[in-house]
Amino acid sequence: MEQQTTETQIRMQTNLGTITLKLYNETPLHRDNFIKLVKKGQYEGLLFHRVIKGFMIQGGDVTSKNAPINKQLGAGDLGYTVPAEFVYPRYFHKLGALCAARTGDDGNPEKASSASQFYIVTGKIYSESELKQLEKQKESRLKQSIFNRLQIENKDIIKQYYKTGDKDSLAIMRDTLIGKTEIEAEKRKNEAVFTPEQCTAYTTVGGVPFLDNEYTVYGEVTEGLDIVDKIQRTKTNSSDRPLENVIIESVVII
């Protein structure tokens, strides 16, 4: 893992135009993995196989090269994952953010990233009231995650109370954990609040705020947002695959 002072610039040529990206040094595992794949020519000929207007454009499925137009895509990868690198709230899901795709939480609680699949955020513009509602949802998720963790930490005691049928002790334990949850959530309340930078971005250029702190953001588009927009406007089938292939013709470090 290299220490860098300048940010790596990437030029991605597609059949619809050129997108220039920069990779963040604060996410070195993702940066170095992406650079490695670029140098190998791994992305050349692959497709943007999943495109959802007002959300994102996704590519990097290694089975998408020369894939028949009716082939189901999205599962192709390289057989390894990259550990999550959340640099939040500095880097978030604003328009143009370069992010790592991944499998779901059930089989991937560490939120480790796909080795090759990535997406570029298009998103939508949010009102201030919509962001306030999302903050309430974030607060609820924070409290639930804290409560779940405390339950796991006390599972042996809880199991014993269940085993002996001690309902009074179970009720006391539950109230205790709820109290601890509220205290910890209060200390961590900033995690559920959007920063001024996020609020400005999400209410002006837009993005996908509900993905923040869930998927690694490791770069952003510096030129070619018009091409990203052109890709997101392509017609797609019921699986969100473009009806006409959007091809990554080349990716180079500049």
List the helices and strands and how they pair.
Blueprint: E1 8-14, E2 17-23, H1 28-40, E3 48-52, E4 56-59, E5 81-82, E6 97-100, E7 113-114, E8 118-121, H2 128-153, H3 155-164, H4 167-187, H5 196-204, E9 217-223, H6 225-232, E10 248-253
Antiparallel strand pairs: 1-2, 1-10, 2-9, 3-4, 4-8, 5-7, 6-8, 6-9
Helix pairs in contact: 2-4
Account of the 3D structure:
The chain is of the alpha+beta class. A hairpin with a 3-residue loop joins strand 3 and strand 4. Helix 2 crosses helix 4.
Largest sheet: 8 strands, antiparallel
Helices, by number, come to: 6
Number of strands: 10
Strand order of the largest sheet: 3-4-8-6-9-2-1-10
The fraction of residues in strands falls at 15-25%
Give the topology string: H per helix, E per strand. Answer: EEHEEEEEEHHHHEHE
**Given the C-alpha coordinates, what overall shape results?**
elongated
Core attributes:
single chain; two-stranded antiparallel ribbon; 254 residues; alpha+beta; eight-stranded antiparallel beta sheet; 6 helices; 10 strands
Short description:
By secondary structure, the protein is an alpha+beta fold.
